[in-house]
Amino acid sequence: QNEKIRNGTNLIDGALEIKLSTVGIVNGCVDDLIQAPYYPQMANNNTYGLQAIPPVRAQMANDTFYAPGGCQELIIKCRESKNRLDADGNGDSKETNSLCSKAQSICSSGVMGPYTESERSFYDIAQKLPDTFPSYAYLEYLNMGSFLEAIGSPVNYTDSSDAVGREFLETGDMARESMIPELAGLLADGVRVAFVYGDRDYICNWLGGEAVSLAVAAEAPEGFAASDYAIHFPEAGYAPIVTNETYVGGAVRQFANLSFSRIYQAGHLVPAYQPETSFQLFARIIKGNDLSTGNVTNRTNFSSTGTRFADKRHELPSSLPGECYVRNIAGSCTEEEAAMIAKGEGMIVGGVFYDTEEDYSSEVSSQMVESTKTVKQQGTATVEVVVTHVLTGMFTATAIPAGGYRRHAPAAGAVLVAGGLVAWNGL
Fold first, then answer.
1. How far apart are CA 266 and CA 281, in angstroms?
2. Mean pLDDT per 10-residue section of the chain, whose length is 427 residues
């Protein structure tokens, strides 16, 4: 509404212009017409060497997108109908709703769906199902009686609503419209647009995200350096995202106010997997600095330099053992655990189900051991020393780390979550 406020056509008295400087999108599904073809590629031709499904199934999924009557054709028909019969997007055209709902269903089941055969998480290709990282422990907190009373809620908390989801499916919401012109319009207004994608996510994978960033650059309308984005953003090289003195957390392509970052060893919820890299990148994006190093830049013509492609390969970490949360049985528990809960067997502590008391005691014990950092000998005494580094402020790189890169954080949920709390408290 900002433009209407500026030219006096806004009819709401006292409306305030929103001063928007930056929009960040983390592993976003922006446009199926652009991103859907990358699902088969992410399943079988990713930078981790994982073949999640047989090549023939990946090829069939790819064919479903391009075939006559397939995903691509249905999305185009959906959007043509929407522009003709439901230009305001009210969802009141039965024909449009039917076409768009069909497009969304076919794209979901035929192009994206074959990956389910891998029995791996949609949000982290490294994780076998059930996937319980990041932790669901917050569900217990949000459902505490004292919490619900404090916020005045008459109902308990759940993560999502199937009823609401069905309503969006009825109108084919995901297929109806491309957001590319809207994002390009932000660039035209001088707003920074930053795409950040963890490279282990499947559901909104980084390959499709990269394609979206290029589409936004190409779509940039006449106005603020519009033609420059179409030409110079694709030409910008991928520079390393230097997180600290010893770790490179990803690769970034950046030109003026548009950027695309691939974050290494991160799933859908990037900050949970790579907290320090996320913190540094967030701070640099907000400040409008060089996302590779944190240095101050001339944003109007700054362009990153580096490799043409973000094709660095990594080893896929082992799948983490899961935890069964009673407030998310379908998403976190095995069939055996769900059956035990239904029978009233096992034990529940803090919302987590354990087969036996011994299993609970064993897990608590292992967590206590993991918290010990070093053991030193002082005379005849053995002393445990816990070393804690408080992360504050923003790191500005003076050079690319030398002597090889270390893994910033192992694929152990508790360690990463702890790191995340330290990093974001620094903000």
1. 14
2. 84 86 96 97 97 97 96 98 95 97 96 97 97 93 95 92 92 94 90 97 98 92 64 96 96 96 98 97 95 87 95 96 92 94 93 88 56 53 56 75 52 29 27
How far, in Å, are 21, 95, 135, 407 from residue 324 at the CA level? 41, 43, 10, 28
Phi, psi of 382 (to 5 degrees): -100, 125
SS (H, E, C) the chain: CHHHHHHCCCCCCCCCCCCCCEEEEECCCCCHHHHCCHHHHHHHCCCCCCCCCCHHHHHHHHHHHHCCCCHHHHHHHHHHHHHHHCCCCCCCCHHHHHHHHHHHHHHHHHHHHHHHHHCECCCCCCCECCCCCCCCCHHHHHCCHHHHHHHCCCCCCCCCCHHHHHHHHHCCHHHCCCCHHHHHHHHHCCCEEEEEEECCCCCCCHHHHHHHHHHHHHHCCCCCCHHHHHHHHHHCCEEEEECCCCCEEEEEEEECCEEEEEECCCCCCHHHHCHHHHHHHHHHHHHCCCCCCCCCCCCCCCECCCECCCCCCCCCCCCCCCCEEHHHHHHHCCHHHHHHHHCCCCEEECCEEECCHHHHHHHHHHHHHHCCCEEEEECCEEEEECCCCCCCCCCCCCCCCCCCCCCCCCCCHHHHHHHHHHHHHHC
CA distances from 189 to 136, 180, 328 (A): 39, 15, 43
392: Cα within 13 Å, side-chain hemisphere: 2
Q: Which two tokens stand for residue 391?
A: 């992360």
- pTM score, whole prediction: 0.84
Neighbours of 219 (CB within 10 A): 19
| d(C-alpha 392, C-alpha 39), whole Å | 38
The CB density around residue 246, as the number of other CB atoms within 10 Å, is 14
56 is written with which tokens?
């023939």
